[in-house]
Amino acid sequence: MPYDPDLAERIRTHLAGTPGLVEKKMFGGIGWTVGGHMAAGAHSDGALMIRCAKEDFAAFIAEPGAAGMKRGETLMTGWVLIASASVATDAALHHWLDRGRGYAASLPPK
Predict the structure, then answer these.
(1) Which DSSP category does 108 fall into?
(2) Which residues, 6 or more positions from 35, have their beta carbon under 8 angstroms from its beta carbon?
């Protein structure tokens, strides 16, 4: 299922003005990178995908509506999928986007 364009617009609006931000279509969805590193993405079913440090992964997926992403049966630590209901409000969406953007911005530019 394709990404939710309304979620994409909400992400775009919140991340606007971020230094080094690039929006690109990828994996059937749309993603945002900071300094060449994935920060966030609009995923299928209105879910949000963010990137995080591996040491933060367990704490992030313990939050309501958050889960680790999988490739097949392999859990991809550092990639978090947040259910659409958990990013329904702007405050909730911004909370997660700021975390993804912060992590991407903390890495050396590619």
Answers:
(1) P
(2) 20, 104, 105, 107, 108, 109, 110
Cα(109)–Cα(8) distance, integer angstroms: 24
Tens-place pLDDT, residues 60-82: 999 999 999 998 999 999 999 99
50 vs 47: CA distance, rounded Å: 10
Query: What three-state secondary structure class fits 78?
Result: strand
User: Which one-letter DSSP state was computed for residue 109?
Assistant: P
Local structure of residue 24 (DSSP, 8 states): E
Close Cβ partners of 83 (under 8 Å, ≥ 6 residues apart) = 47, 65, 66, 67
Q: Which residues contact 67 (CB under 8 A, 6 or more apart)?
A: 61, 80, 81, 83
**Statement: residue 1 has pLDDT above 60:** no
Q: Work out the end-to-end distance of the chain between its first and last CA atoms, rounded to an integer number of angstroms.
A: 30
Q: Domain 5-106 has what CATH class?
A: alpha beta
Q: What are the sequence ranges of the domains in the chain? A: 5-106
